[in-house]
Amino acid sequence: MGRSLPPQTLSPPTSTAAPFDYDAALMACARGDRTALQQLYQRESRYLMGVAMRIVRQRPQAEDVLHDAFISIWQRAENFNPALGEGRGWVYSVVRHAALNMVRSGARQVSLGEDAAVAADDQASLAAYAAAGDPFELRADLGRLHGCLSGLEPARRDCILYAYVEGCSHGEIAERLQTPLGTVKAWIQRGMRALRECMG
Length: 200
Description:
Number of helices: 9
Radius of gyration: 18 Å
């Protein structure tokens, strides 16, 4: 059952070198520990903002995504299961899904390009499948996905990971790889086709 976000104001992130237990922080949030949520925000908000920015492209919308994501983290922390993955990855997935939901709902005031819309649809579909899937089957499918990714040429694999895991645009990937934009688009299309055939 959802809980509203604690009324306290989240303070700006602070740097720290001490090890941080994300799993424990999420489990503490599930118990209603506001300090744990504050610690998560201080630790990761600057990086999570970058994830949101790569997807929604505009800072005001990215700030909304971050706010909504932390509400979701607070309300859904009890659903986190450390047996299915690390806490830090779970937090990042919440932010990515919130950003994609904003894009898909039309909350962005700029139009999506065709390539970005296709990427959003693909990633949102994968997220919905992951959320609804049986945990055992999900782990099995992730194992198959890892095997299929390993079978791709490194350049194609990198393009797909940049696009669907980090939320990079095709232009950003082209800059990272110092490769023409058309080549990047072709690699992603062929790589996704090969993945679908492999996972088939």
